[in-house]
Amino acid sequence: MWSLSFISEKDFYTHVQDTIKKYGEKLESFDLKRFNKNLIDPIKLIFDKTVYRSSWEEIVSNEIFRQRDKSNNNDIGYFHQRIFQYIKNCHVPANGEEGGWDVIYQDDKGISLPDGSVVKTVYVEMKNKHNTMNSASAGKTFIKMQNQLLKDDNCACFLVEAIAQRSQNIKWETTVDKLRVGHKLIRRVSIDRFYTLITGQEDAFYQMCMVLPEVIEKAVNELGSSLVPHDTVIEELRSIAKDQNVESEDLAIAMAVYMLGFGSYSGFEQ
């Protein structure tokens, strides 16, 4: 039986599958050219390999994972944001439209906030992690929320964080033009508290997390072999290493790695 009352099994499965598909080109196989597209740091790779007692296969695999992972945060942001299109009273505007808000939550019956305020609409700016905004970005976001309150005196604005420092729904205070500012209708909210607010279920986010692994597994199995990349980096490095006039295979592969970043440097070009 499906255990989530605030989203259907079909909608949740569709959303998980769409999120996986967003990984897109990051699931394409890595060859040596793609591996070195932004120029790796050979010195760092060799330090990491030796200090962590890793094999070349492990260190290359870790670097490929790091490169893939760098761009995956946007895809997880997609998951956190777009799920609300399936939840009652929530609306997810197209990118850049309707003020550029990530989610708009409306309830004509009224939305009660922790301080006792009641509003009809909540405008949401979502962040994956609590420390991803610098002071300039935070100030700009706060001003955007202030402007929304001036346009609509029956609303609140939320900064919703998927990875917050703690579970919270508090007045957001930040610095704008070197002044400490805050407003009771501009709030900093962890994603679990946002789920609670819109679903009326205290542990809604927890319940979603509990069904997520099984649904991801099902979606990945259905998508099948298209998700399994065949990376050839280590094979290509070994091939280059064979052409090095070096007895030690380990040093020969190190030379092949050096050539990725230092191929035109004095001494290496020979």
Give the total of domains: 2
Tell me the Rg in angstroms. Answer: 24 Å
Largest sheet: 6 strands, mixed
Please name the CATH architecture of the largest domain: 3-Layer(aba) Sandwich
> Which secondary-structure class do the elements indicate?
alpha/beta
| Principal-axis shape | elongated
The total of helices stands at 10
CATH topology of the largest domain: type ii restriction endonuclease, domain 2
The pLDDT mean sits at 92
Structure summary, number of beta strands: 6
- Contiguous low-pLDDT stretches (5 residues minimum) are none
Q: What portion of residues is helical?
A: 40-55%
- Give helix and strand order, one letter per element, not per position: HHHHHEEEHEEEHHHH
Beta-strand percent range: 15-25%
Ends apart, CA distance between termini: 67 Å
Written description of the protein model:
This protein is of the alpha/beta class and 270 residues long. It folds into 2 domains: 24-71 and 232-262, no CATH class; 76-208, type ii restriction endonuclease, domain 2. It contains 10 helices and 6 strands, in the order H-H-H-H-H-E-E-E-H-E-E-E-H-H-H-H. It has helices at 9-22, 32-35, 42-51, 56-70, 73-82, 135-151, 191-199, 204-223, 233-242, 249-262, and strands at 90-91, 103-112, 118-129, 155-163, 169-176, 179-190. It has a 6-stranded mixed sheet with strand order 1-2-3-4-6-5. A hairpin with a 2-residue loop joins strand 5 (169-176) and strand 6 (179-190). The N and C termini lie far apart (67 Å). The mean pLDDT is 92.
